[in-house]
Batch of 3 targets.
Target 1
Amino acid sequence: MNETSVRRLLDGVLDVLDARAGHGGSPVPEPAAVLARIAAAATRLTRASHGAFVLVPSTAADQGGEGYTDVVTVGLGANPAEPVWSRERTTAGKGPSEAKPERLLVSGSATNGAGHPLPGGFPATTSVLRMPVYVEDTLFGQLLLADKLSGGDHDGADERGFTEHDEDAVAGLVTAMAPLIGMASAYGKVELRLRWLTAAQEITGVLLRGDDPAAALRLIAERARIVSGSAVGAIARPDERADQLVFDVVATEGPVPADASGLSVSVRGTATGQAFTTGEPVLVRDYGTLAATYQSGWSGATMPDLVTALDSAIAVPLTVGDLPVGVLLVARGHGTVPFDADDVQLVRMFASQAALALEFGRAEQDRHKLAVFENRERIAHDLHDLVIQRLFAVGLGLEGLGKLTTDAKAGALVSGFVHDLDRTIKDIRNSIFSLQHPVEAPGGVRADLLRLCLGLRGTLGFEPRLSFDGPLDTAIPAAMRADLLAVVDKALTHAARRAEATAATVEVVVDRAGRTLTTTVADNGAAHPGERAGQDGEIAELEVLAADWDGTFSIGGVPGAGTGLTWTVRLPRHDARTQGGHA
């Protein structure tokens, strides 16, 4: 290599090192910038018309030798000075990157079909120079140069093609730049890992602030989609029987199609189910086609277009300890670079941290609930030990005072006050029960009725007043409980249909002997004629439910209130219905 070649080589090295500029003072430039600079420097060094840096293909373990390779070209396109990135398919060593490329110097005739694979965007060439690039004895890619330009003094070389001097100069450039390529590549991997860690920290912060867990799940799916460069990010959670997984959280670049949310897949025979049952990540290709085929045979359903367009996918379990709580799925569309083993590890790390954050968030919610329950318990004890006792003492005093008076009118007034105090004590006791039994917790008849009434607030536009009397939880069998809840549900639903109804009361009473259950639902609206005549289908069902238990049912006007419904049935005593229900 003569002095001119050495000078050009040094100029090329300096050009590449200038890639540090414009990166905010970072000691290591972006990997893409380094590769583009090397390709551009090599074209100038050899007077090539255009060049390319072709990376080693990324091929996942299950892809059967088929994968994609990244290619950066210079000297082509609308603006030859700008590098152009593309991704091209490679199969079994064919394509723009061979498994073990060697130096290649061809002059005179070399085209895309002449046995020297070139990137798809390259035009037919008259000369080709190929130089493999190794970083720490590992093949990183290859540098391709094509069509040496004629004219100018270039060490007396033949202007129609590349020379051995060009080959030596490019080899020197590649050798000098190998450490920088390695640093930039490592920097890119570290930066990607940092993006995953940043996303995980954001989710942890959201959950520890006590934000809505549903919003946190959406954030997990969205961040996983963005950082992984996927078309779709989704979270599937098991149903009550844990034999199906429901994709109730789906994130896409645009609005989520209505038919894409809420999809159910089996835990058996699917990639998502395999990740959930084994606790290990699953990497698949052509996910959309596989999912559509399986779903068609399993449930006969048709997968939405959003799913069928997916190709490479990673399903990673969301696990807390040894307990799987769901699956995180990220999937890319056809024509994009598929995931590889490094991607799987990064998604798995993110999923582990996200699952732990979800568990911490749930624990924080439980702590808040416990604080609320403790406060409710204190209030309930105060109401019972102080307020009820004082009201009871006042009631006894009034009852004694009523016996002392000889004025019949005054005695009737005092008796009325005592009755009102008695009802007030019952209402307070109902409130104490509501405080001590949270709506979401399972319980007896009282808890079920409370949960039902609170659940109908949105339909009614108000909260019905609920009162109990008698041993409801011990006297009412399980089969009758279901009918009782159905009666109250249908009665309040009918009250909601009356535009003039603005208040309702529900009274459920078991007599002291434990023989009769009486349920009264009253509201301040007027029943339509069909209801009172028994012509309404649902009202007729209540009459049948009463007859099943040897009871009675009536509906009519309530003086000063509006419409009242009374359902009275006999409580069974140790007969077959208490064990197995009724026909």
Target 2
Amino acid sequence: MKKLTYLFIVFLFVQNKIIAQNGISKPQKAIINYFELPREQIYLHLNKSTYVTGEELWFKGYFFDFLNQVPSTATTNLHIGLYDTNGKQIQKKLFLGFNGNTNGSFSIDSLLQTGEYYVKASTNWGRNFKEDHSYTQKIKVFNPKNGRTSSPTKRENVSIYDFQFLPEGGHLIEGVENYVGVKLINSKGKGISFNKATIYDENKDEITSFKSNSFGLGKFSIFLKPNMQYNAKIELYDGTILTEKLPHPKQNGLAIIVINTHKDKVFLKLNTNENTFSNIKGKPYKLMFHQGDKSIISEVVFKQNLSVEIAIGKSELFKGVNIITLFNEKDQPLIERVIFNDYNLKTDKIIISEAQKLGDSIEFNLKLNSSKNSIYNLSISTLPQGTISYAHDKNILSTFSLNPYLKGYVENAAYYFQNITKKKKYELDLLLLTQGWSQYNWNNVFNFSPVKTYDFETGLSINSLINNNVKEKKKALQLYIHLTESQGATLIDVNKDNTILIKNLYFKKGEVLKTSLIRADKKVLPTSSVFEIKPRLIIDSIVFSSKNPKINLNHTTNLLPTSIKPFFSKNITELDEVLIKGKKKKDDNESSPFISGSPDRFTKITQREVSIFPRITDLIRYKGYDVIDNLGRVEIVQRFGSTLSGSGRLSPLLFVNGIATNNLGILASLRTSDIEDIYVNPRDISQGPRGAGGVIRINLRKTFLPTSNTDNTSQKNYAETIINNGFEVTKRFYTPKYNTYLNNAFDNYGVIHWTPEISVKNDETITFRTVDIPNKTYVFHIEGMSNKGELISQSIKIQR
């Protein structure tokens, strides 16, 4: 066996070189084409899974490029909807994300009835593919006004069982040894464990017996004789007896057996029978290990024996899921098996310790224990020990490691990536055996290459047609978008076809868009055009499938006690709002005309400048600086680094009436009409090192700024449009005020804290605070992703 294994490994890689020299194989070329476009997978970390009306559902969203196994940063727009138990959309919102993550919340409205709901997250880019890469999570809602989800008067019959035989590789073949996975589920789709299953032949001779794990999964091996009927007898723990016939095997074909329990090797055995052997002897079959667009391949030939035994080092395979596919000489797929390669797959650890008590709060230290030079972005849901409101069946590891490849539903996928043991590794392999072929249908792979029909969404876009059917001097040459709380001022030329298209805008929902037209005769007028603002929030539904079935959550039937009505204090703390900080759009018009010529360093302020740039920071931004004005705190930096200091982007030296100051905050409330003139030069080095960030000189107004009726300045020179489909405002979390922490209602359903944004790197200790509740055990549910794509999912308990 060792000699055979060694020879095969050598042959495998020599053969790869031969194939590479002669050009890649058809299956390899097909997967390269099929996965040419990037693929995004979404994960939502919800702070709970069960909510009471009046609560807020808090979430953190993560974007993952699972082909390259790194954060996906191409998309900023995340569409998240709430759906009823039948998958009908109730509401949908747009959230803004950067650097592969976002966060936000949904209010659990008092109009929602007690029952089960879904939260679904998707991106526009995901619509390009046949496979569904959206994320769906089921939640429960309890409304005290309409009672519990107690047992219905007409009880559904959950004692209807479905016992499935799932051959390894996809087929039962007579006359060979077959490995067969089994799955037992009830009418709700939940796995049912069984005490014993016995396989008999038609003569009632026992062939083998086995039992299932807690999810109703098991497996057995059997040599299937021709023309023999086999039957299974299944004994449940409650004494119920089930019987099922094995499907009839095929007379021709191949069977595969995969052993993935060895530390550093995967063993495979391909079996066939005499009927098949005569047809395949000496033919060049291909065995391919692949993940996305990556693959290794080798030729497999049945020469003298009915079996071919193979071994490959796990270090040569891909990290995580590997799909094994056997092709015949015509490149038709015959067998497929999914395995998980955990070779040298180590997850980093978070350590949390109590630091100090600060009034009614408690401060905790958080440290990342890692050997890698990575920066993690984390979210933490802090709940009381014993809570039954955190019952998520997925985590970030299962979502990004398994979900992109499997076509079937996985019950409690998070289980396989928590407190990993040898038993769980075996159960994960058993799960993958019963999953059968991957979700990537070979007919699609060979015949369909995804086309980029839908773009990565980055912000909002505005499209409009300007009515320019007027005299030449009255034609609109430019559109000006005025400064708002979340969007910088923008000046854009009208296209030759009189259209305007502006992309990468980051308006929040409900914000007022103010727009002006600048005509050829220099007049500034309000726009009269209708603006089309995209993306529009599409009404959709949850499509239930074998991968996303309608499964009831494994919760208690009595959701909450009747004492839930006084659960919250009447003087609950209101949630503060934090404005979305949009990505600043770089000025594409830095060298375009401003009234006439290039942007001058020195500008005399007239009514025209006041009309276009109401605040002086608007004009400074136009002149070449990046300006962030956040509630009076003004930050101004060079758009490009300073060559004088070599220190990157620096702030300018500000002179007001000839006096130097470092207080840029005075610009926050300064109107352009208050200025006589201004000099802006990001490259001015006249002040030496202290002026390495450039110079801004402002002279405050001493003379009267005249207005002209011919310029229409006595009227509003802008039109207003309310942005109804903008980004949601990110709320700041505050712990709800509860009447008491000393009852089961709080222990089961209460919230201690939600921390959506923590950034930490190796050996760094950061602090965060929660409310102080003495004599409680805190459980910190942590999910996160590093800047290099490493994933972490962990729960930590601390006794107070």
Target 3
Amino acid sequence: MVLSGTRGQHRIAEEPEARLEDARGSHPQSHARRHSLRPDREINVALAWRPREFRRQPDNRGYMRAMRKWAYMGIPHTGGTYSVFHNLRNGLLSHGVELRWVGVGAADASALADGPGNGELQLGIVVAPGESEEPRQGAALVEFFTTARYEGVFVNVLCGRVATNCVRYLEPGMRRILIVHTTSVGAYAAARAIRDHVHATIGVSPRIARDLIARKGFDKAWTVSIPNAIEVERFNVAREKTACDGPTILFLGRMEDNAKGCLLLPKIFERVNRSGVRVRSVVAGDGPDLTELKRRCNSLSNVHFLGPVPYEAVPVVLAEADIYIFPSRYEGFGLSLVEAMASGCVPVASAIRGVTDTIIDDGSTGCLFPIGDWRRAADCIARLACDSVRRQEMSLAAGRSARSRFSVERAAQQYMDVMDMAVGAPRPLKPTLDVTKWNYPKGLRDGWRSCLPRKMKQHLRLMRERLAMQTA
């Protein structure tokens, strides 16, 4: 990781040239971690990936050719942002593209310093890490891209409003591709704010692409859906036999109720217990609602909290579970859902139109329940827990579906198609703005939604999703 610039002084440091050697030496086996769903058992998990850092690679005739360099706005420090960057980077490397992340400002630098270490931290830069004033951050970021010789940049909407807004100030030759990861009103508003300053837009689900075209006026020819990908081979882990104390139900994700619906879990677990089936319930992850979730689960003796799970341990944790519960209220995709399916976990998930219903074939590769309907979710789990034959059939079907549809190789080729189109025949954009007059358009400014109470936001989102299901 390179930190460049200081508060009030935007010195741009060149990124170090990557070594022309296999980088596996920087990730020794000794970095392996131990994780297991069962407290009486430890599994040694070695790092499952080896980042490759080559500025040149041979073409099909054996000649060395320079790699194209693209930036990825955002810091891949934890969770889904880490997985998406890691998988996309590895996929694009085989096409001669080096992807490097770019963060900006004191908040990004602090998040990286406080977050868990991982190999991706070597593969990017934080611009102006000591700067907290947003106009200065924006100026430093524009200056960085003016001198750093990137062919293009992927902008993740809501990765930070400075990074998102920066595309309006980049020089005309810089290719810009917007990635929209969620179906929230705020994400759509932010995407609309920079719509005319990006060459192409990628929605990670069909729902997002359709919504942007129909409701936000995005150009149909330049707006596509490309699902997030997984490294299929990571999930080729031998599955554990169902324990004598019954199937294991797993929730693995961020403990944040507003989007993830994690505070529905106690009700779901309690209803499953009252149905009379023997199960183990495991909750893995961290987040702002973890303390409240633990409090609500105090009376449930068969609920176990695993804590944060490192990236390299996720396949083993999934392989020890039988049923994966996914109670999200809204999502743009659901990467953990696909990972669970690839490992053979049977998913029981909220039916989010154009998102989870495009991942799960209800009744075949998993089960869907109406958003927020914890009773239906519990009943689905109870039926699966009682029927080992059906559970095994769905496990195999889920694994086949995830491995065939969501591979890194498939997604990388789709990204390359969009990148080549943006480079070869770019669509005209609005004129570049003057960075000395830095400002935020509507959609990137704080609006009335930020003032709503949490419960009201949840209620409005639930109404929105139910209406979407009725009009599908």
